[in-house]
Design brief:
The chain has 83 residues and is mainly alpha-helical. The protein has a domain of 30 residues. 81% of the residues lie in helices and 0% in strands. The longest helix has 51 residues. It is rod-shaped, with a radius of gyration of 34 Å.
Length: 83
């Protein structure tokens, strides 16, 4: 009778929590290679994002330097004219 209470094999079409979890684990399991590829892809995307951000900030600094040079050159020329 004890064996009948806890059958080892499910009837066809019968789903239990254990069988669903086992199927999910099989589907969600990643190989070492795929984990490494996901990690490397994530790092590459992160580095690309930081690089684009840095290039944008450097472009802003370059524009500010150009504006400062333009204003300073005008001030220096005006000073020379006044002297």
């Amino acid at each position: 009778m004890v064996g009948d209470q806890f059958p080892l094999v499910n009837q066809p079409g019968e789903f239990t929590a254990d069988s669903v979890m086992t199927n999910q684990r099989k589907k969600m399991r990643l190989t070492i290679f795929s984990r490494v590829m996901v990690a490397q892809s994530t790092l590459i995307l992160l580095i690309l994002g930081v690089s684009l951000f840095a290039v944008g900030k450097l472009r802003l600094v370059s524009q500010l330097n150009t504006e400062a040079l333009t204003v300073d050159a005008a001030c220096i020329n005006e000073e020379k004219r006044l002297l």
